[in-house]
Design a protein that fits this description.
Elements (H helix, E strand, L loop, with lengths): L2 H31 L4 H8 L1 H4 L5 H15 L1 H11 L1 H14 L5 H5 L3
Helix pairs in contact: 1-2, 1-4, 4-5
Length: 110
């Protein structure tokens, strides 16, 4: 297989994997937080986040391959096992860096 053909195959799997990841993220946010949180969804699906595991297209392609081989539940398990631990660590670090939100800081104009 040529390099271009291999890359094209990765991108095809990544296209499906991106859709599976997006569905997973939206369902998880609604289940865990009970609200629509587009900003959090963007953090969970961003190339910056995905690159902690591998090149973003390669990560999405792996999700797509698992989905095509084993189905949605298996793809969700893969995400839970491989990506969510990284995301939770990043979220904990992000919360630590944010200033505490008090009623005073909420009242101040930005």
């Amino acid at each position: 297989m040529t390099r271009k053909a291999a890359r094209d195959q990765i991108l095809k799997h990544a296209w499906v994997g991106d859709a599976v990841l997006t569905l997973y993220v939206r369902e998880r946010i609604l289940r865990d937080d009970g609200v629509i949180d587009g900003v959090k969804a963007a953090r969970m699906t961003s190339n910056q986040f995905l690159s902690v595991f591998a090149e973003p297209s390669v990560t999405e392609a792996e999700i797509g391959r698992v989905f095509e081989r084993e189905g949605l539940s298996a793809a969700y398990r893969w995400i839970e096992e491989h990506l969510i631990p990284f995301f939770e660590r990043q979220e904990n670090n992000r919360r630590k860096r944010e200033p505490a939100k008090t009623s005073l800081t909420k009242a101040l104009p930005v």
